Amino acid sequence: MEKASCKDKWERLSEALSSLSISLLGTILFVLVISYFTLKGLGNAKITVPIQGINVEITYPEMKLPIDFDILYKVVLFLFSTVLIGIPIPLLPENIKVLKVGITLLQAAIFTYALYSFIAIILELIKALA
Predict the structure, then answer these.
(1) Could you tell me if 44 and 60 are in contact, meaning their C-beta atoms sit under 8 angstroms apart?
(2) Can you give the residue ranges of every domain in the chain?
(3) Which phi and psi angles does 116 have, rounded to 5°?
(4) Which of 32, 70, 102, 105 has the fewest C-beta atoms under 10 angstroms from its C-beta?
(5) Which residues, 6 or more positions from 19, have their beta carbon under 8 angstroms from its beta carbon?
Protein backbone atom coordinates (compact mmCIF):
# COMPACT_ATOMS: atom_id res chain seq x y z
CA MET A 1 0.00 0.00 0.00
CA GLU A 2 1.54 3.28 -1.15
CA LYS A 3 1.47 6.48 0.85
CA ALA A 4 -0.41 9.32 -0.73
CA SER A 5 1.81 12.31 -1.40
CA CYS A 6 0.50 15.78 -0.76
CA LYS A 7 3.14 17.32 -3.03
CA ASP A 8 2.18 18.77 -6.38
CA LYS A 9 4.11 18.08 -9.59
CA TRP A 10 6.26 21.22 -9.23
CA GLU A 11 7.39 20.23 -5.76
CA ARG A 12 8.25 16.73 -6.99
CA LEU A 13 10.19 18.16 -9.96
CA SER A 14 12.08 20.53 -7.67
CA GLU A 15 12.87 17.68 -5.29
CA ALA A 16 14.12 15.51 -8.18
CA LEU A 17 16.35 18.30 -9.51
CA SER A 18 17.85 18.87 -6.06
CA SER A 19 18.50 15.15 -5.68
CA LEU A 20 20.14 14.94 -9.11
CA SER A 21 22.29 17.98 -8.30
CA ILE A 22 23.56 16.40 -5.10
CA SER A 23 24.33 13.17 -6.96
CA LEU A 24 26.19 15.07 -9.67
CA LEU A 25 28.30 16.85 -7.05
CA GLY A 26 29.49 13.44 -5.83
CA THR A 27 30.26 12.43 -9.40
CA ILE A 28 32.31 15.60 -9.91
CA LEU A 29 34.34 14.80 -6.81
CA PHE A 30 34.97 11.27 -8.09
CA VAL A 31 36.09 12.55 -11.51
CA LEU A 32 38.43 15.06 -9.89
CA VAL A 33 40.05 12.46 -7.65
CA ILE A 34 40.46 9.90 -10.44
CA SER A 35 41.81 12.45 -12.92
CA TYR A 36 44.25 13.79 -10.34
CA PHE A 37 45.64 10.35 -9.55
CA THR A 38 45.73 9.35 -13.19
CA LEU A 39 47.32 12.48 -14.59
CA LYS A 40 49.19 14.15 -11.73
CA GLY A 41 49.79 11.48 -9.11
CA LEU A 42 51.38 9.01 -11.50
CA GLY A 43 53.52 11.58 -13.35
CA ASN A 44 57.00 10.16 -14.04
CA ALA A 45 56.21 7.09 -11.92
CA LYS A 46 58.27 4.00 -12.68
CA ILE A 47 56.30 0.78 -12.45
CA THR A 48 58.15 -2.54 -12.59
CA VAL A 49 56.12 -5.48 -13.88
CA PRO A 50 57.52 -9.04 -14.05
CA ILE A 51 56.66 -10.65 -17.40
CA GLN A 52 57.79 -14.26 -17.90
CA GLY A 53 60.68 -13.84 -15.48
CA ILE A 54 61.88 -10.55 -16.95
CA ASN A 55 61.31 -7.30 -15.06
CA VAL A 56 59.89 -4.69 -17.40
CA GLU A 57 59.99 -1.08 -16.25
CA ILE A 58 57.19 1.18 -17.41
CA THR A 59 57.57 4.94 -17.00
CA TYR A 60 54.27 6.76 -16.83
CA PRO A 61 54.59 10.06 -18.73
CA GLU A 62 53.85 13.37 -17.06
CA MET A 63 50.68 14.88 -18.50
CA LYS A 64 48.87 18.16 -18.08
CA LEU A 65 45.47 18.08 -16.46
CA PRO A 66 42.99 18.99 -19.25
CA ILE A 67 40.26 20.24 -16.91
CA ASP A 68 39.25 23.89 -16.93
CA PHE A 69 38.90 24.56 -13.22
CA ASP A 70 37.04 27.85 -13.74
CA ILE A 71 34.22 26.02 -15.50
CA LEU A 72 34.30 23.27 -12.89
CA TYR A 73 34.03 25.88 -10.14
CA LYS A 74 31.00 27.40 -11.88
CA VAL A 75 29.40 23.96 -12.28
CA VAL A 76 29.74 23.31 -8.55
CA LEU A 77 28.25 26.75 -7.77
CA PHE A 78 25.36 26.14 -10.17
CA LEU A 79 24.61 22.74 -8.66
CA PHE A 80 24.64 24.15 -5.13
CA SER A 81 22.38 26.99 -6.25
CA THR A 82 20.00 24.44 -7.79
CA VAL A 83 19.69 22.78 -4.41
CA LEU A 84 19.36 26.06 -2.49
CA ILE A 85 16.76 27.53 -4.86
CA GLY A 86 14.58 24.44 -4.40
CA ILE A 87 14.55 24.52 -0.60
CA PRO A 88 11.60 26.95 -0.15
CA ILE A 89 9.36 25.31 -2.79
CA PRO A 90 7.46 23.04 -0.34
CA LEU A 91 6.96 25.99 2.02
CA LEU A 92 5.18 28.17 -0.54
CA PRO A 93 1.37 28.25 -0.26
CA GLU A 94 -0.86 26.89 -3.02
CA ASN A 95 -2.31 30.29 -3.94
CA ILE A 96 1.03 31.46 -5.40
CA LYS A 97 1.51 28.51 -7.71
CA VAL A 98 2.95 30.81 -10.40
CA LEU A 99 5.92 31.51 -8.13
CA LYS A 100 6.41 27.77 -7.56
CA VAL A 101 6.38 27.16 -11.30
CA GLY A 102 8.81 30.01 -11.97
CA ILE A 103 11.28 28.92 -9.31
CA THR A 104 11.13 25.29 -10.43
CA LEU A 105 11.70 26.24 -14.07
CA LEU A 106 14.64 28.45 -13.05
CA GLN A 107 15.99 25.53 -11.06
CA ALA A 108 15.60 23.25 -14.10
CA ALA A 109 17.42 25.75 -16.34
CA ILE A 110 20.34 26.11 -13.93
CA PHE A 111 20.61 22.33 -13.55
CA THR A 112 20.50 21.81 -17.33
CA TYR A 113 23.31 24.32 -17.89
CA ALA A 114 25.41 22.75 -15.11
CA LEU A 115 24.87 19.28 -16.56
CA TYR A 116 25.81 20.51 -20.05
CA SER A 117 29.01 22.09 -18.70
CA PHE A 118 29.88 18.96 -16.74
CA ILE A 119 29.46 16.76 -19.82
CA ALA A 120 31.71 19.16 -21.77
CA ILE A 121 34.39 18.78 -19.07
CA ILE A 122 34.14 14.98 -19.21
CA LEU A 123 34.39 15.00 -23.02
CA GLU A 124 37.53 17.18 -22.84
CA LEU A 125 39.05 14.75 -20.35
CA ILE A 126 38.23 11.77 -22.57
CA LYS A 127 39.64 13.53 -25.63
CA ALA A 128 42.89 14.26 -23.77
CA LEU A 129 43.26 10.65 -22.64
CA ALA A 130 42.54 9.15 -26.07
Answers:
(1) yes
(2) 9-129
(3) -60, -45
(4) 70
(5) none
Supply the pTM of this predicted model: 0.72
What DSSP designation does 53 have?
Answer: T
Residue 34 Cα distances to 3, 5, 37, 123, 124, angstroms: 41, 40, 5, 15, 15
Could you read off the pLDDT of 44-92 as tens digits, one per residue?
778 888 888 888 888 877 767 677 778 888 999 999 999 999 888 888 8
Q: What is the per-residue burial (b if ≥16 Cβ within 10 Å, else e) of 34-70?
A: ebeeebeeeeeeeeeeeeeeeeeeeeeeeeeeebeee
